[in-house]
Amino acid sequence: MPEGPAASAEERTVIEQRGLYFEEFDLTALYQHRPGRTVTEADNVLFTTMTMNTQALHLDAAWSATQPFGERLVNSMFTLSTMVGSSVAQLTQGTIVANLGFLAVTFPHPLHHGDTLYSETIVTDKRLSTSRPGQGIITLEHSGRNQHGVVVGTAVRTVLVWCQGAAQ
Asked: What residue ranges define each of the domains in the chain, with the CATH number in brackets?
């Protein structure tokens, strides 16, 4: 432990929580987003009703009991939103210009009430924008797994981010 008086407020280095600038995205890294998110019945019902999704598979326990999974399932849009949302602090907080789109969204296994969703991201491509100086296009592949390691969702997302020193 260092000895001596603590630095005064004026002497302290300021570190701001932010995402990555274009140059910092690493094509060889696996970004694990922690902590995980345990999904409750209340989360599912609130998200489903808030987004006006009246699908009985998310809301009607009696009907869902007669379906192949035998219970209500977590809304897949909640799964997608949580996978992407969990990446924000680490990857795009304050450095994103725009979300450009999603490709290849899949839900190979359902997420159930009480499951914990763990998300991770790899960068599959990055290039400087030809039409927007000081900005670059990043392709991210998000995946989410439950507490047993089973993949419950994947998505390829393209984002426009600031280059270092160009952010407004």
From this structure: 18-162 (3.10.129.10)
